[in-house]
Design goal:
The protein is α+β, with helices and mostly antiparallel strands. The chain is built from three helices and 13 strands. Strands 1, 2, 3, 5, 6, 9, 10, 11, 12 and 13 form a ten-stranded antiparallel beta sheet that branches. Strands 4-8-7 form a three-stranded antiparallel beta sheet, with no helix packed on it.
């Protein structure tokens, strides 16, 4: 009777197979780890890019409606004693004046679907000491929109509460004073350049001391802008993101719905605000003629303390 012989692996062959499988496994695990690391980095980069782009667009949209001579760069640690007015020194780009503040045009009621709330045109030939006729306007519409947006913080029709302000599109407020942040309450308590709209009368803004006459002259112009809020973008909550003992990132916070011409400041208790972007490492801006450029850099953590975060930067130019 013939027996079938079956040969098994020898010990050396088994050891060789195990070694080969170990090598293959180590190569595979290394490749998988690299793919995973790449995925984590790309995801962090994509997340940072989306968040930064959204924040940059929000900033650009608001700056696009800034009254040009009102833009101020401030030191967030000492905002009312250390500042640079863009109208005096437009080349602002340093590591100290990293907060920016301005007064914004009321674009919401200006771009109404039907007749705009305010047309931006003042009939200087028929204006009086108390009125600024503004043909083509629907001031009641502006009143409704602004009061709702300001959570009823703006009051058109009585002396109580804050008022919107009218800024004529000229360099001179009167024969002695030029429009400047220092006379609108942005950098000092002086609000001499503010013309407040205290009421509505048909299609005319009114003011009990709106002096357009020669006895108390303010420079009149056919074009004006209506504003009801200032805005400030301020670095807050400085912190250490990678445990190296250095405060290297912060949040950008937007302050709104306050009126410097009424003596209000963004540092006052109760001023509304919202965080625009977290983990910001750079926020710089500069102005050239009617263009403001700004740059934002963000760090996005992707691991533990020993793993460097992903850094992404965005730049935008705002032409006003």
């Amino acid at each position: 009777m013939k027996k079938d012989l079956r040969y098994a692996f020898s010990m050396i062959e088994l050891i060789f197979v195990i070694v080969v499988l170990g090598i293959v496994a180590s190569i595979g695990s290394s490749a998988i780890a690299k793919v995973f690391d790449t995925y984590i980095s790309q995801k962090a980069l994509s997340t940072s890019s989306i968040k930064t782009e959204i924040a940059a667009m929000q900033i650009a949209n608001r700056l696009n409606h800034a009254i040009p001579w009102t833009v101020v760069a401030k030191n967030p640690l000492n905002p009312f004693n250390d500042f640079i007015c863009f109208v005096d020194n437009p080349q602002v780009s340093d590591n100290i004046h990293t907060a920016i503040e301005w007064i914004g045009v009321d674009n919401d009621s200006f771009e109404a679907m039907a007749t705009p709330g305010w047309s931006g045109y003042c009939d200087t030939s028929s204006s009086t000491r108390l009125t600024c006729p503004t043909p083509g306007s629907d001031i009641a519409l502006s009143k409704n929109i602004i009061e709702k947006l300001s959570n009823n913080g703006i009051n058109f029709t009585s002396f109580a509460g804050s008022k919107p302000a009218i800024f004529f599109k000229t360099d001179d407020y009167d024969n002695l004073t030029k429009y400047h942040p220092s006379c609108i309450g942005l950098v000092a308590g002086n609000t001499d350049c503010a013309i407040k709209a205290y009421g509505i009368e048909g299609t005319a803004f009114t003011h009990p001391t709106l002096a357009f006459t020669d006895s108390d002259p303010k420079i009149r112009a056919e074009h004006y802008a209506l504003a009801w809020s200032a805005y400030a973008i301020v670095p807050v909550n400085y912190r250490d993101i990678n445990d190296d003992g250095i405060f290297d990132v912060y949040d950008l916070r937007l302050y709104y719905n306050y009126q410097p011409w009424e003596g209000e400041k963004y540092t006052d208790i109760g001023i509304p605000s919202a965080v625009l972007l977290n983990n910001v490492s750079v926020f710089k801006f500069t102005q050239l003629d009617n263009t403001i450029r700004f740059k934002i850099c963000v760090q996005q953590p992707i691991g533990g303390a020993n793993v460097a975060p992903v850094t992404l930067c965005k730049e935008k130019a705002v032409i006003r």
